């Protein structure tokens, strides 16, 4: 997925709260804003959730077959 730069004007208090949240989550501010937007889109039914593909251990699969 390509990323596109977008200038954002945002309320100073909201930006400060987002910065604190991103620090708490060990994310960059940009990644936190994208995470929150993506989650809101998914919850509003505006975006499809990416399927979760389970990670399998090849050794376990050998023992199960």
From TrEMBL:
Under the heading SUPFAM superfamilies, the entry gives:
Ribbon-helix-helix
Q: Which domain of life is it from?
A: Bacteria
Q: What is this protein called?
A: Arc family DNA binding domain-containing protein
Source species of the chain: Thalassotalea profundi
